[in-house]
UniProtKB/TrEMBL annotation, chain A:
It comes from Planococcus chinensis. The chain crosses the membrane at residues 12-35, 80-104, 116-134, 203-220, 241-262. CDD domains: TM_PBP2 (cd06261). It comes from the Bacteria. The lineage of its organism: Bacteria, Bacillati, Bacillota, Bacilli, Bacillales. It is found in: Cell membrane. This is Nickel transporter permease. Belongs to the binding-protein-dependent transport system permease family. OppBC subfamily.
TrEMBL record, chain B:
The keyword Secreted does not apply. This is ABC transporter ATP-binding protein. One of its GO terms (molecular function) is ATP binding. Pfam families: ABC_tran, oligo_HPY. SUPFAM superfamilies: P-loop containing nucleoside triphosphate hydrolases.
TrEMBL record, chain C:
The chain crosses the membrane at residues 12-32, 103-124, 136-159, 196-219, 262-284, 304-330. It comes from Planococcus chinensis. Its main location: membrane. This is ABC transporter permease. It is a multi-pass membrane protein. It comes from the Bacteria. The lineage of its organism: Bacteria, Bacillati, Bacillota, Bacilli, Bacillales. Pfam families: BPD_transp_1, BPD_transp_1_N. Belongs to the binding-protein-dependent transport system permease family.
TrEMBL record, chain D:
This is ABC transporter ATP-binding protein. GO terms for molecular function: ATP binding. It is a peripheral membrane protein. It comes from Planococcus chinensis. PANTHER family: ATPASE AAA-TYPE CORE DOMAIN-CONTAINING PROTEIN, OLIGOPEPTIDE TRANSPORT ATP-BINDING PROTEIN APPD. Its main location: membrane. Keywords: ATP-binding, Cell inner membrane, Cell membrane, Membrane, Nucleotide-binding, Translocase, Transport.
C-alpha cells in the first residue's frame, strides 16, 4: 500500500490525474453544497452574463448559472461513465474469458460476434437507438455499452490466452477443479488487470463519446446540465459569450485528461514490464 | 503389480501453425511404455521438447492421450469418466517446473493449499486448517506466512508450496515435472532433500522429470531416457549411468559439464540440434546425430529391447 | 502465395461478420418506429398513395422476406434504393464515401506523421521533460472534444487569421475535378488540376487536424509503450553492445520492432476516425458518409442506413485486413511459419 | 594486464529509490585468461558485466575505475564508449532468441559491427561474415546469411551471437550465461567452441555462470559473488579443492555429484538478502553456519589465503588464517528449517 | 461582455481596411451564395415534399401562376390569363407564347397536361393535392396555348394550388427518359423546366450550382450564378456570412437567440417578415383527460402567452387563436382568446375532476430550440395549476409516427400552408377524415365543422367561404382541440449588400434569386 502510494507520487502526471478525478468525484458527491445556483433555473433577466463574483463561470443564454450546471454535470458524466463501463466490463470480461479459455468453436463464435460489434459503426448504432427509443442519456448509455464491450472481450481474451497454459491453471485441473471454478477463481482474476486499466481510461472516453452524442442532439435533453449538450447549445455564440462554451469544453477536457492520466499511471505502475 | 503401468502411450498434437492454419501433427509422445513401483522414483531425462512434460501430463490426463493404456493400481485410466477421474486425482498429483507460474499470484498460500481440499470436499474447516498448518510446518513455513501471497516468497519456498499443494490430498504418486530446473543449486538441494524425506516418510512414488542428468541420477531408482517422443533407454539408475548402452545416452552423459576441473574429459559432441518433433527423421529418430549411425538406422525403427538383464535400449547397434 | 491464401481466408471470414452486421442493422432499423412511406410523402399524402408506396417498397412483406430480398440484392451488388434521395444506395455511397475516405486517410497521414515521432521521442526520453510534454500533448488531443476543437480551429484559422477555408471540400464556385476516385486531392493530382488540388488540400487541413487529434493521441501512446517494451528487450542491448550509437539503435532497430503493435492499432484508429468523422463532418460541413448517415436515420431511410453501416464495416474490416497483411510482410516470423 | 577493475560499485533506481546492487568490486585479468564469475541468481553477475560494458539502465550510478589495456574507460564519453564496444570488448547474452533482432537477417546483424567499427567495403564485409559463420561452426553459411533468427535453432542462434561478438576480434569477451538456455548436448557444442576460440586467440574471456560444471570446464580463475560483493577469488582447481568462504563451500556441497545417490545434499538455508535491505557486516552472516558476532557488525575485507586465492571472511586472517576452520561440506548440513 | 468588445475592437484595429478588403474580396455581384443546412433529396417536382427542393425547382421551372414578392395572391406566369366557369368546375388557361423549355422547345398546353397527369401518376406529394380534384380525363387541349381543365368537383382554392412547386410545368420530352419509373430517377437529379435558372452542377451534400438561363422568356435573371451551399453547422455558416462568403442564410438555420446576437454585426442585416407559419399544440381529444374540453380549456388558460412570446420567440412572433394565420383570407378576428388566468384554469380542472393533479406528456421532435424552450415554459406554467408535464423528445420519424397514430397527449408542431387558403390548414386540422395520418393530430371530430368545411371547399362564393371559415375557427376556439401558440416572424440573416429579397409569408423558403441584386 505504502509502496503503491510512493509509486503514484513519484509520477507528477499521475498525481495530477488523481487530483482531477478526486475533484470530479467530490463535485459530484457534494454538488448541492458546491453549486451556487440551481442548475436548471431559468433567469431571463440575467442571460449571457460574463463570469463574475455572482456567477463564477457566467450565465448561459437563458440565464442559468454555468458554474452550477458544470458542477451538477459531473454527476451526469460520472454516471454515464460508470454505468457504461459497469455494463460493458462484465459482459466483455466474461465473454472474453470464456472465449479464451474454452477455445475452439466457442471461441470462434464469441469472437465473430465480437467482430460484428467491433466493426459496427458505434455512432450509427447510437443514432439508430436514439431514433428508435428517443434521444436520452439512458439510450446513449445503452448504445455506448453495446459498442464498448467487445474491447474488453478482446483484451481479456488475449490475456487469458497468455495465461491459459499457466502451470497454476494446469495444477488446478490436476486437482480436479471444474471449469467453472477454474474460470472464476483462476483465470478471470489473473487476466482482468489490463482490462481494468482500460476501463479506467474508458471512463473518460465514455464521457467524451456521450458528450459527442449530446452535441449532435442525441444525448442529454435540454434542461439537463450535460456538458456536451451545454457546449452544443452555446457553440453558435462562441464569440459573444466565450464562457458558455469554454467551461463545458474544459470540463470535458479535464475529466477525460484526468482519467487518462490516472489510467496511464496505473498502467505504468501495474505493468511489471515497465517497473 | 506396479503402481503405474503405462503401455504404448501416444500423445499427438494437431496444431494449426502460424497465420495460415496449416495443420501439423506433433508426435510429442510416441509409444512410450514405463512402469513405476510403489515407493520408487522413475527419472525421465531428455532434451527440451522430447516429450517429457507431455508424457507426464497425459498420464494425469491433463491432455487426452491419443492412444495407449495407463493403469493406476491396475485400473485403466484412459477413457475413465470425469467423476471417477476426479476421485483418482487424489491419488496422483503433479508438481511443476516454474515456481513463479505454478501458483496463482492472486491467492494466498492458505487459499492455494486449501483449494484441493475444498474441491474434493475433504473435511471441515477446522480439519483443513490443521492439515494445512501441519503441511506448512513440513515445508518450513511459519503459520503467519500462510496469509502471504506467492510473490512474497523466494523461488525455493514457492516450489515447496507447490509440493505441499500436491501433498494435501495425500497422493500415492507425484509427477514432478522439472521441479528444480528453475532453482539455484543451493536452493535446488533443499527441494531435493525435501522430496527424498517425503518419499521415505510416506512411501511416495515419483516420476521425476528433468533434463539435468546429475539431479536425476541423484534421486531416481530407475531412469528412462527420452529422445523425440520415444524412450531410447530404460534401466536402473546405476546401469544407465555406469554402462549406458544407447549412443544418445552416452552422448548425454559425456556432454554433462562436471564440476571437477581436474577431470580430463573425452567428449562425444553431437552434431546439430534436436530435430523438430513435427517432422522427425525416419527410422531411428536419432540417426541424424548419431556417431554410430549406419544406413539401416535411417530405415529401421529400433524396438526397445532388453539388451542386458533389466536394461532396455532401442538401438540396433548394441 | 502464402500471402494470397492468407488474404483469401481473411476475406472469407468477412462473410459471417457482414451477415451479422446486416442482421443487426436490419433489426435495429426495424425497431425504429415510423413509416418510411409517410416520411417520403410528407404529411400531405393520401392514404391510397401511402399504401401504394408501402407496397412498392415492400414494407408490407414480413421482415424475414424483406431481409432475404435485401441480402439477395447485396449479392448482386444492389443495396436497394434510398428512400430519401430515391437513388440506388450504391450511387449515393459512391458519391459520399470518397469524401469521408479522403478525410480519414488524411487524418491517418497526420496521425502517422505526428504520432510516431512523438511516441519515439517520448519513449526514448522516458520521464523527462520531453516525455511529459508529448504525453500531455497527446492526451489533450485525446481528451479534447473533437467538435469543440473544430469550432476553435475554425474561429482561429478561418475567422481570425483567414488563412484556411471554413467549410466544404472546395472553395465556393470551384467545380470538382473529374471523377476518378472521388477524392478531390487524388483526382486533382491525377488530372494535374493544381488550383483544385491546392484548394482541396487547404480544405482538408482543419477537419483533418480535428479528426486526427484523437488518433494522434492513440498512436503516440501506443508507440511510446511499445517502444518502451522494445527498448528493454535483449536485442536492443545487443545492438548497444555492438557499439551502435543511440539514434541508430532507436530508428534502426527499435522502431521497426516497436511499430508492429502500432500498425495493429492503426486499423483500430482508422475505424475510430471513420466513426469520429460523423462529428467532424457536421462541424465542417463535409459532405461525407457521416452526414449521409445522419440524414438517412432522420428520414428512416433504411436501405441507406444499411448501406452506410455495411460500407463502414467493410472499410473497417478491409483496413484491418491490410494492416494484418502489412504485418505479414514486415514480420518475417509470420512469413516463414 | 587486460582488465583492471578497482572498487567498482553500482546503484540502480528502483521504484524511486536508489539501491546498491554492486559494492566495491575489484579484480584484474590477464590477456588470454578466462575468468569465471559464479553466484546465486540476483547476486549481480549480469550487472557486473553490464557495468564493464557501461550498458546500464538509465539512472544508474556507477562508481570506481575500470581500465581496459591500461586505458581508464570508466570515464569515457558516450562517443568513445561506442568506439570500443563491439570492437575491443564484446558481450554475449544468455538468451540467444531474444538477443537477436527478429526483423533483421543474420547477415545484417553480424555485418553491423563491421559497419560500425571497420572501413571494410561491402564485399569485404560479406566475406568476413561468411568467414565468421564458418568459424563458429555453422554450416551453409551462404544461405544462413539471409535467414532470420526464428528460422534457426537455439544453438545456432547462440553461435550467431558469438559471431557478432567476435566480428571485430575483441580483446575482451564477456559471456553472460551463454549456455544456460541451451540443452546439454548443445551446451557441450558451445563450450567446445568457446574452448576452441580460447585456444586460437589471445582473448580474455569473462564467463558468467551459475553452473559449477561450466566453471570447471572452461575457466582459469573464478570469482564467487554473493549479494553484490566478491566473497572469494581463486584459480579454478584451488577453488574446487580448497574452497574457503562458507558460501563457496555450501555451493559446492549442494551440487549432486555423479555416483552419489539418494543421499542428503548439502544446502544453504535461508535466502539471499535483497538489494534494498542488505544487512550490515557480512552479507552471508544470516545463512552462515559459522556466524560470529563480528560478522554481523563489521564487513570483512578481502584476505589473501595464498597466491591468487583470496576471500572475504572473518574466519581467516592474513597469512593462512585459522587453519581451515571450515573444511568439508558435511559441516554445512541443516538443510531445511525443520 | 468584455470578450465581445475586445474581439470587436481587435477586428476593428486589426485592419479597418482589412475587413473592407476582405469583404471586397468575397464580394461578387454576379454570384449569389446561399447557405442552408438541409440537403436536397431530389429535384423531381412531383416527388419531393422538401422545402429545399422547392427552393431550387421554383427557379428551374415555371408554373401557370406564381406568387410574387410578399403577395399571397396568385399572379399570372405561364398562364397569362384564365377563366373559371360559374359552377367552379371548368378552368380555361391561356398560355404565354414565348416561353421555352431549357432545351428550346416551346411550353405548350400539352406540357401542362403532361405535367399534371404525371403528378397524379407518380402518386407522391404532388398527387396529394391534385388527385382529389383532377384526373387524366380532366384535360382538354384547345390549341397549343389554350387548355381547359375540368375539376371532378368544385375546389375553391384550385388556382392557389397551381402556384405551388407541385404545379411546376415539366418538359414532356422527359418521356424519353422515362424508363419504367415515369422518369423519377432521371428527374431526381436533373431539371427539365423553363425557368430563369438552369442546373449547372450538383454535388450532393455540398453545392448545387444554378446558372442564369440566357434565353429566359421573362425578365432576365439578375444573378449569373447561384450557389446553394449545404453547411450543416449553423455556427460555420454564421462565420461564413460574416466573412462575406455567404450572402444569405436559410431562415430556418439560426436560432432566434443567435439572430439577436447577430443584429449588430457590421455588414449583416436580419431581414424580418411576416409568415403564415403557425406553431401549435395538438391535444389528443381521444385520449385520457384531454378528451374533456374542460381540461383543454383549463390548459389554454394556464399558459402565459406573453412570457412565451417574449422569452422563446424574443418578441418575433404574434399570438394567434386559430388555424388560419393572420393576414390570410378567412382569418377570424373575433375568435375567443384565452387569457392567462390560473384561477379559472384551476376551477375548470376542478370541474373536470382533476383537483388532485394530472400528469401529461408532451412530445416534441428533436433539434429545435424554439420547440424545446416552449415545452420547458409550458412545463413550468402547467405546474402552477397542478399539471405535471413530462417532456419527451423524439427523432422526427418517431415523432411523426407517434402523433399520427394518436399515442401522444400533446404534440408541438410548426406548420406552413402550401397554398394561401384557409381550406388548407383547416381541412388538415379539423376535418374528421384527416384524423391521424391526415394530420388532424387532435383527432378532432365535429360534424358541424366537417360540413362547413365541405361546403366552403366546393363553393365559389367567397363571402360564404369566409363566413364558414370564421365560424369554424370560433367553434374550435371554444372546444380547443389545439392550442395555437404563435405565428412567428421569419428572420433571414444576410449581407447588407443583398437587395431586392422579399420574403413571401407563405413560401418562406422561396428566394427569388433571379430578382435579387448585390450592391456594395
Ligand atoms: N498442447 C500442445 N499442443 C501442441 N504441441 C505441444 C503441446 N504440448 C507440447 N507440444 C509439443 O510437443 C513436444 C514435446 O513437448 P514437451 O513439453 O512434452 O517437451 P519436454 O520434453 O517437456 O520439453 P522441456 O524440457 O522444454 O519442458 C514439443 O515439440 C512441443 O512443442
Ligand atoms: N533494471 C534494473 N533496475 C533495478 N534493479 C535491477 C535491474 N536489473 C537487475 N536489478 C537488480 O540487480 C540485482 C542483480 O541483478 P543481476 O541481473 O546482475 O543478477 P544475476 O546475478 O545476473 O542473476 P541471474 O543469475 O538471475 O542472471 C538483482 O537484485 C536485480 O533485482
Ligand atoms: Mg517440459
Ligand atoms: Mg544474469
Amino acid at each position: 500500500m505504502v509502496e503503491l502510494a510512493r509509486r503514484i507520487f513519484s509520477s507528477p502526471l499521475t498525481v495530477l490525474g488523481l487530483f482531477i478525478v478526486l475533484v470530479i468525484v467530490i463535485s459530484a458527491a457534494f454538488a448541492p453544497l458546491i453549486a451556487t445556483h440551481s442548475p436548471t433555473e431559468v433567469d431571463l433577466l440575467s442571460k449571457l452574463e460574463a463570469p463574475s463574483a455572482e456567477h463564477y463561470f457566467g450565465t448561459d443564454e437563458v440565464g442559468r448559472d454555468i458554474f452550477s450546471r458544470i458542477i451538477y454535470g459531473t454527476r451526469i458524466s460520472l454516471r454515464i461513465g460508470l454505468l457504461v463501463v459497469l455494463i460493458a466490463f462484465p459482459i466483455g470480461t466474461i465473454l472474453g474469458a470464456i472465449a479464451g479459455y474454452a477455445g475452439g468453436r466457442i471461441d470462434q463464435v464469441i469472437m465473430r460476434i465480437t467482430d460484428v460489434f467491433l466493426s459496427f459503426p458505434g455512432i450509427i448504432l447510437a443514432m439508430s437507438i436514439a431514433a428508435a427509443l428517443g434521444p436520452s442519456i439512458e439510450n446513449v448509455m445503452l448504445a455506448l455499452a453495446a459498442t464498448w464491450w467487445p474491447w474488453y472481450t478482446r483484451i481479456v481474451r488475449s490475456s487469458v490466452l497468455s495465461i491459459k497454459h499457466s502451470e497454476f491453471i494446469e495444477a488446478s485441473r490436476a486437482l480436479g477443479a471444474n471449469p467453472f471454478r477454474i474460470l472464476f477463481k483462476e483465470v478471470i482474476p489473473n487476466s482482468i488487470a489490463p482490462a481494468t486499466i482500460q476501463a479506467s481510461l474508458d471512463l473518460g472516453f465514455v464521457i467524451l463519446s456521450a458528450a459527442g452524442l449530446s452535441f449532435i442532439g442525441l444525448g442529454a435533453q435540454p434542461p439537463s446540465p450535460e456538458w456536451g449538450a451545454m457546449l452544443s447549445n452555446s457553440r453558435e455564440i462562441l464569440r459573444e459569450a466565450w464562457w458558455a462554451a469554454t467551461f463545458p469544453g474544459l470540463a470535458i477536457l479535464l475529466t477525460v485528461l484526468g482519467f487518462n492520466l490516472l489510467g496511464d499511471g496505473l498502467n505504468d505502475i501495474l505493468d511489471p514490464k515497465q517497473r | 503389480m506396479p503402481l503405474l503401468e503405462v503401455t504404448n502411450l501416444k500423445q499427438h498434437f494437431t496444431t494449426k501453425k502460424g497465420f495460415m492454419g496449416d495443420k501439423t501433427v506433433v508426435k510429442a509422445v510416441d509409444g512410450v511404455s514405463i512402469t513405476i513401483d510403489e515407493g520408487k522414483t522413475l527419472g525421465v531425462v531428455g532434451e527440451s521438447g522430447c516429450g517429457k512434460s507431455s508424457l507426464g501430463r497425459s498420464i494425469l490426463r491433463l491432455v487426452e492421450p491419443t492412444e495407449g493404456s495407463i493403469k493406476f493400481e491396475g485400473k485403466e485410466i484412459v477413457g475413465m469418466s470425469a467423476k471417477e477421474m476426479k476421485e483418482l486425482r487424489k491419488e496422483m498429483q503433479i508438481v511443476f517446473q516454474d515456481p513463479y507460474a505454478s501458483l496463482n499470484p492472486r491467492r494466498t498460500v492458505r487459499q492455494i493449499l486449501e483449494a484441493p481440499l475444498i474441491i474434493h470436499g475433504a473435511g471441515d474447516k477446522a480439519y483443513r486448517k490443521e492439515l494445512i498448518e501441519s503441511l506448512a510446518g513440513k515445508i518450513g513455513l511459519r503459520k503467519e506466512q500462510l496469509s502471504n501471497y506467492p510473490h512474497e516468497f523466494s523461488g525455493g519456498q514457492r516450489q515447496r508450496i507447490g509440493i505441499a499443494r500436491a501433498l494435501t490430498l495425500n497422493p500415492k504418486l507425484i509427477i514432478a515435472d522439472e521441479p528444480v530446473s528453475a532453482l539455484d543449486v543451493s536452493v535446488q538441494s533443499q527441494v531435493l532433500n525435501l522430496m527424498l524425506d517425503l518419499q521415505r516418510e510416506r512411501n511416495l512414488s515419483y516420476m521425476f522429470i528433468s533434463h539435468d542428468l546429475s539431479v536425476v541420477q541423484h534421486i531416481s531408482d530407475k531412469v528412462a531416457v527420452m529422445y523425440l517422443g520415444k524412450v531410447v533407454e530404460i534401466a536402473d539408475v546405476a546401469k544407465v549411468y555406469d554402462t549406458p548402452l544407447h549412443p544418445y545416452t552416452r552422448a548425454l552423459l559425456s556432454a554433462l559439464p562436471v564440476p571437477d576441473p581436474t577431470r580430463i574429459k573425452s567428449r562425444i559432441i553431437l552434431q546439430g540440434d534436436l530435430p523438430s518433433p513435427s517432422n522427425p527423421p525416419s527410422g531411428c529418430t536419432f540417426h541424424t546425430r548419431c556417431p554410430m549411425a549406419t544406413k539401416e538406422c535411417a530405415e529401421i525403427v529400433p524396438p526397445l529391447e532388453e539388451k542386458a538383464p533389466g536394461h532396455f535400449a532401442a538401438c540396433i547397434h548394441v | 502465395m502464402h500471402a494470397l491464401r492468407f488474404i483469401g481466408k481473411r476475406l472469407l471470414l468477412m462473410i459471417p461478420i457482414l451477415i451479422g452486421i446486416s442482421i443487426l442493422t436490419f433489426a435495429i432499423s426495424n425497431t425504429i418506429p415510423g413509416d418510411p412511406a409517410r416520411l417520403i410523402l410528407g404529411p400531405k399524402a393520401t392514404p391510397e398513395g401511402l399504401e401504394a408506396l408501402r407496397e412498392d417498397m415492400g414494407l408490407n412483406d414480413p421482415l424475414y422476406v424483406q431481409y432475404a430480398k435485401y441480402m439477395g440484392g447485396i449479392f448482386q451488388g444492389d443495396l436497394g434504393e434510398s428512400t430519401y434521395s430515391q437513388r440506388p444506395v450504391m450511387d449515393d455511397l459512391l458519391r459520399y464515401s470518397p469524401a469521408t475516405f479522403e478525410l480519414t486517410l488524411f487524418a491517418m497521414f497526420i496521425t502517422l506523421l505526428v504520432g510516431i515521432p512523438f511516441g519515439v521521442i517520448s519513449a526514448s526520453r522516458k520521464d523527462r521533460i520531453a516525455d511529459q510534454f508529448t504525453r500531455v500533448f497527446a492526451l489533450i488531443g485525446v481528451a479534447m472534444p473533437a467538435f469543440w476543437l473544430g469550432l476553435l480551429l475554425l474561429l482561429f484559422f478561418y475567422l481570425k487569421l483567414g488563412v484556411l477555408p471554413g467549410s466544404g471540400r472546395l472553395d465556393g464556385g470551384m467545380s470538382p475535378p473529374e471523377y476518378i476516385t472521388g477524392m478531390y486531392t487524388v483526382d486533382a493530382l491525377l488530372t494535374g488540376n493544381w488550383p483544385v488540388f491546392y484548394a482541396a488540400v487547404m480544405h482538408l487541413i482543419l477537419p483533418g487536424i480535428t479528426l486526427a487529434a484523437v488518433t494522434v493521441g492513440m498512436i503516440t501512446r501506443m508507440t511510446r509503450s511499445s517502444m518502451l517494451t522494445v527498448l528493454q528487450s535483449d536485442y536492443i542491448r545487443t545492438a548497444f553492445a555492438k557499439g551502435a550509437p543511440e539514434n541508430r539503435v532507436l530508428y534502426g532497430h527499435a522502431l521497426r520492432n516497436g511499430i508492429m503493435p502500432v500498425i495493429t492499432l492503426l486499423g483500430m484508429a482508422f475505424g475510430h476516425a471513420l466513426g469520429g468523422s460523423v462529428l467532424v463532418e457536421a462541424v465542417f460541413s463535409w459532405p461525407g458518409l457521416g452526414q449521409y448517415a445522419v440524414n438517412a436515420i432522420n428520414y428512416l431511410d433504411f436501405p441507406a442506413v444499411m448501406g452506410v453501416t455495411m460500407l463502414i464495416a467493410i472499410m473497417f474490416i478491409i483496413v484491418n485486413l491490410i494492416v494484418d497483411t502489412l504485418y505479414f510482410f514486415i514480420d518475417p516470423r509470420l512469413k516463414h511459419n | 594486464m587486460l582488465l583492471e577493475v578497482h572498487n567498482m560499485s553500482l546503484a540502480l533506481k528502483r521504484a524511486g529509490r536508489y539501491s546498491k546492487i554492486l559494492e566495491d568490486l575489484s579484480f584484474t585479468m590477464e590477456q588470454g585468461e578466462t575468468l569465471g564469475i559464479v553466484g546465486e541468481s540476483g547476486c549481480g553477475k549480469s550487472m557486473t558485466a553490464l557495468s564493464l560494458m557501461q550498458l546500464l539502465p538509465e539512472k544508474a550510478r556507477l562508481g570506481g575505475e575500470v581500465k581496459l589495456q591500461g586505458e581508464a574507460i570508466s570515464g569515457y564519453s558516450k562517443r568513445k564508449l561506442e568506439k570500443i564496444r563491439g570492437n575491443q570488448m564484446s558481450m554475449i547474452f544468455q538468451d540467444p532468441l531474444t538477443s537477436l533482432n527478429p526483423l533483421q537477417t543474420v547477415g545484417v546483424q553480424i555485418e553491423e559491427s563491421l559497419i560500425l567499427h571497420t572501413k571494410k567495403s561491402k564485399g569485404e564485409r560479406r566475406a568476413r561474415v561468411l568467414q565468421l559463420l564458418k568459424a563458429v561452426g555453422l554450416p551453409r553459411a551462404e544461405e544462413l546469411i539471409d535467414e532470420y533468427p526464428h528460422q534457426l535453432s537455439g544453438g545456432m542462434r547462440q553461435r550467431i551471437m558469438i559471431a557478432i561478438a567476435m566480428a571485430c576480434e575483441p580483446q575482451l569477451l564477456i559471456c553472460d550465461e551463454p549456455t544456460t538456455a541451451l540443452d546439454v548436448t548443445v551446451q557441450a557444442q558451445i563450450l567446445e567452441l568457446m574452448n576452441d576460440i580460447k585456444r586460437q586467440t589471445q582473448m580474455g574471456i569473462i564467463m558468467i555462470t551459475h553452473d559449477m560444471g561450466v566453471v570447471a570446464e572452461v575457466c582459469d580463475r573464478v570469482i564467487v559473488m554473493y549479494a553484490g560483493k566478491i566473497v572469494e577469488e581463486a584459480p579454478v582447481v584451488e577453488l574446487f579443492e580448497n574452497p574457503k568462504h562458507p558460501y563457496t563451500q555450501g555451493l559446492l556441497a549442494s551440487i549432486p555429484k555423479l555416483g552419489q545417490r539418494k543421499e542428503k545434499l548439502g544446502s544453504i538455508p535461508g535466502t539471499v538478502p535483497t538489494p534494498g535491505s542488505m544487512p550490515v557486516g557480512c552479507r552471508f552472516a544470516d545463512r552462515c553456519p559459522h556466524v560470529m558476532d563480528i560478522c554481523r557488525n563489521v564487513t570483512p575485507e578481502m584476505i589473501r589465503i595464498k597466491e591468487g586465492h583470496q576471500t572475504a571472511c572473518w574466519l581467516y586472517d592474513e597469512k593462512e588464517g585459522k587453519a581451515d576452520a571450515a573444511a568439508g561440506s558435511h559441516e554445512l548440513e541443516t538443510a531445511l528449517h525443520n | 461582455q468584455n470578450y465581445n468588445e475586445e474581439s470587436e475592437g481587435a477586428e476593428g484595429t486589426d485592419s479597418p481596411e482589412g475587413t473592407a478588403a476582405e469583404s471586397n474580396e468575397n464580394f461578387d455581384a454576379e454570384v449569389f451564395n446561399f447557405a442552408t443546412n438541409q440537403d436536397i433529396p431530389g429535384l423531381d417536382p412531383h416527388g419531393s415534399a422538401a422545402n429545399t427542393t422547392f427552393r431550387v425547382i421554383y427557379e428551374f421551372y415555371d408554373r401557370l401562376v406564381t406568387y410574387e414578392g410578399t403577395s399571397t395572391d396568385p399572379t399570372p406566369m405561364l398562364a397569362k390569363e384564365w377563366e373559371v366557369s360559374d359552377d367552379g368546375l371548368e378552368y380555361t388557361f391561356h398560355l404565354v407564347e414565348d416561353a421555352k423549355f431549357h432545351d428550346g422547345s416551346p411550353v405548350t398546353a400539352e406540357a401542362v397536361q403532361y405535367s399534371f397527369t404525371r403528378a397524379i401518376d407518380v402518386g407522391k406529394s404532388a398527387a396529394g393535392i391534385f388527385s382529389k380534384v383532377i384526373d387524366k380525363d380532366s384535360f382538354e387541349i384547345i390549341d397549343d396555348y389554350t387548355i381547359k381543365i375540368t375539376l371532378k368537383e368544385p375546389f375553391a382554392p384550385f388556382i392557389s394550388t397551381l402556384g405551388t412547386a407541385f404545379g411546376n410545368i415539366i418538359n414532356p420530352a422527359l418521356e424519353e427518359n422515362h424508363g419504367d419509373d415515369l422518369g423519377e430517377s432521371f428527374l431526381a437529379e436533373a431539371e427539365m423546366g423553363s425557368g430563369p435558372y438552369v442546373l449547372e452542377s450538383w454535388d450532393r451534400g455540398e453545392t448545387l450550382v444554378m446558372k442564369a438561363n440566357p434565353d429566359y422568356w421573362g425578365e432576365a435573371p439578375t444573378m449569373e450564378t447561384v450557389n446553394i451551399r449545404f453547411i450543416t453547422e449553423a455556427s460555420t455558416s454564421r462565420l461564413m456570412l460574416e466573412k462575406g462568403e455567404i450572402d444569405l442564410i436559410d431562415n430556418t438555420v439560426i436560432s432566434p437567440e443567435v439572430l439577436e446576437q447577430m443584429k449588430d454585426t457590421e455588414g449583416i442585416e436580419i431581414l424580418e417578415a411576416d409568415s403564415y407559419q403557425i406553431d401549435y399544440m395538438p391535444m389528443n381529444t381521444e385520449k385520457g383527460a384531454l378528451a374533456d374540453p374542460k381540461v383543454r380549456q383549463a390548459i389554454a388558460h394556464s399558459i402565459n402567452y406573453d412570457a412565451l412570446l417574449e422569452s422563446v420567440y424574443l418578441g418575433q412572433a404574434e399570438r394567434i387563436v386559430g388555424a388560419v394565420p393572420k393576414g390570410m383570407f378567412g382569418f377570424s378576428e373575433e375568435a375567443k382568446l384565452y387569457d392567462y388566468d390560473l384561477d379559472k384554469a384551476k376551477q375548470l380542472l376542478k370541474e373536470a375532476g382533476h383537483e388532485s393533479g394530472l400528469t401529461l406528456e408532451i412530445a416534441i421532435s428533436e433539434d429545435n430550440e424554439v420547440r424545446s424552450n416552449t415545452a420547458l415554459l409550458l412545463q413550468s406554467d402547467l405546474e402552477k395549476v397542478g399539471v405535471t408535464l413530462n417532456i419527451k423528445t423524439y427523432a422526427w420519424p418517431t415523432f411523426l409516427d407517434l402523433v399520427t397514430s394518436g399515442k401522444h397527449d400533446f404534440g408541438l408542431v410548426s406548420w406552413t400552408p402550401d397554398y394561401p387558403d384557409p381550406d388548407y390548414n383547416l381541412w388538415y386540422f379539423a376535418h374528421s377524415s384527416s384524423k391521424g395520418p391526415g394530420f388532424n393530430l387532435a383527432f378532432y371530430e365535429n360534424s358541424e365543422v366537417d360540413s362547413l368545411l365541405e361546403e366552403a371547399r366546393t363553393s365559389t362564393d367567397e363571402a360564404l367561404r369566409e363566413k364558414n371559415y370564421v365560424e369554424i375557427q370560433n367553434i374550435m376556439a371554444e372546444e380547443v382541440p389545439y392550442i395555437f401558440v404563435a405565428q412567428p416572424k421569419v428572420q433571414a440573416p444576410m449581407r447588407t449588400w443583398v437587395k431586392g429579397y422579399e420574403l413571401n409569408p407563405m413560401n418562406s423558403w422561396y428566394v427569388p434569386f433571379h430578382k435579387i441584386t448585390k450592391e456594395e
